[in-house]
């Protein structure tokens, strides 16, 4: 039986594969960019064909709704949520928009699905899906792909990930065959199928705990998502007029390192010298044997790295925690050459 620590080690050292369960959205029609610009916090004006980018979608009140991947493939735009959102919530959100006339929106289009694989050897697994040197697929690029033993399948391979390690995502209209092929390619690199806990720990160490934890009810400026907003487009997309620009006085989410085995409950106060300076938001799975990693909302200036703070663990004992920089672990992919 594999553990979360096994999965963590796999993603950090070889390559881990996992199915994407979030609903895909296909958007077609001549007005699709105008439609996307109604709700994405960055414009589609300069988006290139055969690319993928991350974008933030807001609610009417300016709170974050979802982080999505936006693919441009042929004559269609595709969206794939990165943060937790149900098909029902996504359907309601898109249906409430005042869509232009020449737009067709398909949520969870029949037959389509996705599989992802990440790790320092992910590039070697990705090579099984293309007929050219895989080093030619640059970061945020998308290319047509072949699915071994499923010649009739349509597929696209994107170089995009969630962990700071090499990452690839395979879209296919035969997702079962695509997933089987991805698993086979990953096993050939001494990788493995991985579960959500080990993956979430690597994501959190890369500074993207939001993928697993969601937004915890925080506004954009406290959730440290202001970098995903085009502040020159205020008034042009849903919820933008309610946004608040972050300042040096703004509370923000921060990573805290804690002793191995310490467990904290969301909502627990974080203190400095006995005075509350923040609140625990989420704790990453205990998949790295070196330390625990906690996400907290801290008042200014206590979010700067290297501060010794404290929080009561689930047993009620005061426990030292320390603000840390991210990425917390240097990705092995940074020194692994694609060849």
Automatic annotation (TrEMBL):
InterPro entries: GcvT/YgfZ/DmdA (IPR028896), GCVT_N (IPR006222), TrmE/GcvT-like (IPR027266). Residues 4-232 form the GCVT N-terminal domain. It holds the Pfam family GCV_T. Gene3D superfamilies: Probable tRNA modification gtpase trme, domain 1. One of its GO terms (cellular component) is cytosol. PANTHER family: AMINOMETHYLTRANSFERASE, AMINOMETHYLTRANSFERASE, MITOCHONDRIAL. This is GCVT N-terminal domain-containing protein. The lineage of its organism: Bacteria, Bacillati, Actinomycetota, Actinomycetes, Kitasatosporales.
């Amino acid at each position: 039986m594999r553990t979360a620590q096994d999965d963590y080690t796999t993603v950090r050292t070889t390559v881990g594969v996992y199915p994407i369960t979030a609903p895909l959205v296909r958007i077609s029609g001549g007005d699709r960019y105008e439609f996307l610009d109604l709700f994405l916090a960055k414009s589609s004006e300069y988006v290139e064909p055969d690319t993928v980018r991350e974008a933030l979608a807001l609610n009417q009140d300016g709170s974050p709704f979802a982080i999505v991947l936006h693919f441009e493939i042929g004559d269609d735009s595709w969206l794939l949520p990165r943060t937790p959102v149900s098909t029902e919530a996504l359907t309601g959100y898109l249906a409430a928009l005042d869509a232009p006339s020449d737009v067709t929106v398909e949520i969870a289009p029949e037959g389509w699905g996705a599989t992802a694989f990440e790790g320092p050897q992910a590039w070697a697994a990705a090579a099984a899906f293309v007929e050219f040197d895989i080093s030619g697929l640059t970061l945020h690029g998308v290319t047509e792909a072949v699915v071994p033993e499923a010649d009739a399948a349509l597929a696209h391979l994107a170089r995009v990930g969630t962990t700071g390690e090499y990452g690839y995502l395979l879209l296919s209209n035969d997702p079962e065959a695509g997933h089987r092929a991805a698993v086979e390619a990953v096993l050939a690199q001494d990788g493995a199928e991985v579960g959500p806990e080990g993956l979430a720990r690597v994501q959190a160490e890369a500074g993207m705990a939001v993928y697993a934890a969601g937004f915890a009810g925080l506004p954009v400026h406290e959730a440290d998502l202001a970098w995903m907003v085009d502040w020159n487009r205020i008034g042009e997309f849903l919820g933008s007029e309610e946004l608040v620009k972050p300042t040096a006085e703004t509370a923000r989410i921060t990573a805290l390192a804690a002793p191995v085995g310490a467990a904290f409950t969301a909502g627990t106060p974080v203190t400095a010298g006995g005075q509350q300076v923040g609140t625990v938001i989420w704790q990453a799975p205990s998949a790295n044997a070196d330390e625990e990693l906690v996400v907290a909302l801290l008042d200014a200036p206590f979010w700067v790295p290297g501060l010794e703070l404290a929080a009561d663990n689930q047993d009620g004992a005061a426990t030292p925690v320390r603000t840390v920089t991210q990425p917390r672990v240097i990705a092995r992919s940074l020194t692994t050459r694609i060849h």
